[in-house]
Amino acid sequence: MLRVLAVVLACCAGGATAQERVLPLSELRSGVTFAGSNVRAMQADDLANAGMLWVERGEKLWNAAAESSGKSCTSCHGEAQKSMRGVAASYPKFDANAGAVLDIEARINDCRTRRQQASALARESEDLLALTAFVAYQSRGAHLAVSIDGPARAAFERGREFYFTRHGQMNIACTQCHDQNWGKRLLAETISQGHPTAFPAYRLEWQSLGSLQRRLRACLFGIRAEMPPPGAPELTELELYVAWRAQGLPIEAPGVRR
Amino acid sequence: MPDARINIPAEVPRGKPFEVRLLIRHPMETGYRHDDTGKQIPRNVVATLTCRYNGEVVFAARMSPGIAANPYLRFFVTARESGELAFDWVDDRGVRGNERATVNVV
Predict the structure, then answer these.
(1) Residue A15: inside a domain
(2) What's A167's domain CATH number?
């Protein structure tokens, strides 16, 4: 009864609808807690974690000057260990220059094209994964805290709508697995709450590091839905919604997942 | 991307076995997969790997397509004096890789 009352009150609050959480913050669990002990051990050990290969490569790229401008990431940002600390926790983020919400990959490419006069890196290319992993790695342990206020609000609302809309031939919405049935089995897998804390993550199924967008597309493939192309605004908006949903969870990048 | 990551203790007690851990970057292509056009992707795995300590072979492996991408190896070596661990490997395409690590015996 109390719960019904609370829902009614929340609905009456009108403008506060975005703050409604299906999963209360106290119940949030990282995907790694649903994984088997061997996957957890692999993530906990930076030498066994193959994602660290990309982090090391990312560090080299961070310091490498672009041929066109002679500028590297270091030229502006200095030591990533300091300047990038905690940054990934606030992404995806609204960028005034681009006039849109950008995820880390898009932000790196924005920097490359605008500041370094270099070419944009393709999504899922080894170099973009490496730079993203290196940047995200600096925020390990930082708690996710994206902003959904102001100009980011519209994108957030679209991401939320995508999350709750049924998609594809199986006619399933994200919420049906990750809010209503997490912790239960889907064939051999335990359904997680769908938090993005590990990404870019080394997925054993991929035998490679992959971005959050690749993971989202894989989910859409699984429910036989149309997959927006990598870098599509729908995916970035969904990234923003799931990042908000996971608010407060620490970043594990590069994580390890089945 | 680095070819490999090696982990050994900073200092090794003389005559006591110590743990060597090695992660090699390699796709370990099985030969059973096909690309988007249906063409078979040829097998390409790290065929042989040798680890020498001051020139003496202390560990060697022949790998097969059953081993996952980016193979992770862990074994023990005993050192009587300080020296260099040298890893050399070659894959099915004949591409060679090598990595070195200095062992400090105390």
Answers:
(1) no
(2) 1.10.760.10
Determine the Cα angle at A100 with ends A239 and A24, to 5°.
Answer: 35
Cα–chain center distance at A249:
12
Query: Looking at beta carbons, which residues of chain B come within 8 Å of A52?
Result: 5, 23
Residue the block writes with tokens 């203790």:
B9
pLDDT digits (tens, 9 = 90+) for A181-197: 999 999 889 999 999 99
- Structural domain that includes position A100: 26-258
The complex's ipTM works out to 0.88
Within chain B, how many helices (H) and strands (E) appear?
A: 0, 7
Which pTM value belongs to this model? 0.90
Contact assignment for A57 to B2 by CB distance below 8 Å: yes
Q: How far apart are CA A29 and CA A87, in angstroms?
A: 22
Q: Is A219 a catalytic residue?
A: yes
Q: Which residues of A touch B (CB under 8 A)?
A: 47-48, 50, 52-54, 56-57, 126, 130, 204, 207-208
Domain residue ranges in chain B: 4-31+41-103
Could you report the per-residue pLDDT of A208-235, keeping only the tens digit for each?
999 999 999 999 999 999 999 999 999 9
Is CATH 2.60.40.10 the classification given to domain B4-31+41-103? yes
User: The tokens 């493939």 sit on which residue?
Assistant: A221
Tell me whether residue A150 is in a domain: yes
Rounded to 5°, the CA angle A199-B25-A200 comes to 5
List Cα–Cα distances, A55 to A71, A129, B5, B36, B83, in angstroms.
Answer: 20, 9, 12, 29, 29
Number of domains chain A is built from: 1
Tokens standing for residue B60: 């060697």
- Out of A47, A204, A208, closest to residue B21 by CB: A47
